[in-house]
């Protein structure tokens, strides 16, 4: 029995065949060129150091996958390892889906957005390190993120269920400040935990030099509208998308909507 195909079907089959051949060719190129060596060079160039061999193997696999994607997007042209901006960073991340983000909270009339953001970061890293997601108390006094972190480092946090009674405290050993106006560094920080972020433009929709709100960045992804940061706010479930918001990434000129120019991020 003869099988007839129209022109559209033939073109579709050709495209599928070409894609498969191209993918196999790239795969051979990647395996032959020693991914381990390229990753090592990339690590040295970008100053990356991993906690242990498990983390290193995980990041090397992500590096390999991202290298394949970049080569494909560049038409299989040769790319130097220094040109890969986030070679070992996952293409998308959602800490809530990984169980490291508590339910939405509402700061109400308290001017404590920074406390909510910092406490959320502590809750996240506690879950990642111990496997337990605990809700800590936030307090009701506005401060800069650094002062909140200094307080936790010195005096610890009480669980929300036990406050104001004497209960178990959680202290942090320290924290790091992510360089401002650097989305690549923020991506690297978020690969390890949710990150407390300060933003400007929430109330005036203009980006200036004064940070006027603090949030917790819990992930990143992209959709039909482009790349975005996923954040958890502290204004209750009625705000944004059930208490969450998306902020566009990689749009340097649109300052009022971007974390790239109006940001001060802290990682614990």
Automatic annotation (TrEMBL):
This is Senescence-specific cysteine protease SAG12. Residues 1-25 form the signal peptide. The keyword Cell division does not apply. GO terms for molecular function: cysteine-type peptidase activity. It comes from Glycine soja (Wild soybean). Keywords: Disulfide bond, Glycoprotein, Hydrolase, Protease, Signal, Thiol protease. Residues 89-259 form the Peptidase C1A papain C-terminal domain. It comes from the Eukaryota. Pfam families: Inhibitor_I29, Peptidase_C1. SMART domains: Pept_C1. Belongs to the peptidase C1 family. GO terms for biological process: proteolysis. Transmembrane segments: none annotated. InterPro entries: Papain-like_cys_pep_sf (IPR038765), Peptidase_C1A (IPR013128), Peptidase_C1A_C (IPR000668), Peptidase_C1A_papain-like (IPR039417), Prot_inhib_I29 (IPR013201).
